[in-house]
Amino acid sequence: MTKIVVGLSGGVDSSTAAAILHHQGYEVVGVTLWLMKGKGQCCSEGMVDAARLCEELEIPHHIVDSRDLFQENIVDYLVEGYGAGITPLPCSQCNRAVKFGPMLRYAKEELGIDAIATGHYARISHNPETGRYELRRAADLSKDQSYFLYDLPQDVLAHVHFPLGDQTKTETRRVAAEFNLHTAEKPESQDLCLIEAHGSMRDFLDKYLAPKPGDIVDQSGRVLGQHDGIHHYTIGQRRGIGVAAAEPLYVVGIDVGRNQVIVGDRASVHQPECTVQRVNWVSIATPSGPIRAFVQPRYRATPVPATLVPLNDDATRLKITFDEPQFGITPGQAAVWYDGDGQDATRGDRVLGGGIIEVHP
Ligand SMILES: Nc1ncnc2c1ncn2[C@@H]1O[C@H](COP(=O)(O)OP(=O)(O)OP(=O)(O)O)[C@@H](O)[C@H]1O
Predict the structure, then answer these.
(1) Which CATH class, in words, describes the domain spanning 3-119+163-197?
(2) Name one GO biological process term (predicted).
């Protein structure tokens, strides 16, 4: 029997992924990474639900204390990033540095198992012509998580299964009910796990970063108001600026040196281009020259056509020029590029690569 480790968060998706693989005849071992204290997914509640699921399926369950890894790679990364005036993206970083790599290592080294599965909505296929593992959008585009998985290296993708990639969330709930899983009716997690655990990103950051008042200025430097710390602001933000104006104001920039939040009208939040770093090439090999692709500059953004030009030999830094200027290009977030526009899989749904947006020059 083929053995496989399934990452269990205690939610309906990973429960169903485990049940499907178990039903298909895999010898499933449940692994829950203990990421932080508190209630919610990935915390105490999630661990109990995961343990109960393993009891229902009569499979072994391992809990791996990953709190230090989570603290270093996610909590510190977020606090440092927000403190420096950027808006870091924790989920792709968590997938690469906390979940997939370490879980695969644990599976291999501690359990002698070389395959892992999760309840992510995305698809992986092997291309025999290029020898690469290609990452594709989920069949259920409304649940697609490929954006958060762009940073997985080939040697990890080669060992990963996504049993839910071809089905819709409604089907997942139906399958969970058919298998009588106690998690079948469990409500959807609405937010980032950290936000669920702390109430809001503001509450989370306020635990680590002291208030540091400064000026809110317009693009000519005129002082319009006061802020209580640049870490409470992100590019494109409209709410909570607290400055009265005839036209709605948006955050267009954060000047760390001057401790200023710069605001302007909606048009000034549009950028014709940006640069990205720490690029990971996924479904295609590192290109030696410019390529055209559909770039998704934020999780829920529509992918838009753009030209990508490598800025170094190994194409780990790129300049992206959008065909049309884009709203809210935010340093710290990931830009992920696909071979299609995400509206129709027949026009291309492969993740070609992705990288972290750098601070605007
Ligand atoms: N603490 C954890 N330990 C092990 N695996 C995890 C953990 N958290 C998440 N995963 C895996 O990553 C997948 C996606 O996680 P995400 O946080 O997006 O949860 P989700 O989509 O709400 O899924 P679920 O319903 O399973 O919680 C989960 O389905 C699970 O397989």
Answers:
(1) alpha beta
(2) tRNA wobble position uridine thiolation
86-141 pLDDT, tens digit per residue, is 999 999 999 999 999 999 999 999 999 999 999 999 999 999 999 999 999 999 99
The residue to which tokens 């009569």 are assigned:
58
Taking the centre of ligand 1 as the mean of its atom positions, its distance from the CA of residue 52, in whole angstroms, is 16
* Class of domain 211-264 as given by CATH: mainly beta
120 lines ligand 1 (CB under 6 A): yes
d(C-alpha 229, C-alpha 207), whole Å:
13
Q: Confirm whether residue 192 is marked as ligand binding.
A: no
Report yes or no: 47 and 32 within 8 Å, Cβ to Cβ. yes
**Token reading at 329:** 């290009």
Question: Burial letters for 201-232: b for 16+ Cβ neighbours within 10 Å, e otherwise?
Answer: beebbbeebeeeebbbbbeeeeebeebebbbb
Q: How far apart are the first and last CA of the chain?
A: 55
Tokens 């640069």 map to which residue? 275
pLDDT digits (tens, 9 = 90+) for 298-337: 998 999 999 999 999 999 999 999 999 999 999 999 999 9
In the chain, where the domains are located: 3-119+163-197, 211-264, 270-357
Decide whether any atom of ligand 1 lies within 6 Å of the 41 Cβ.
yes
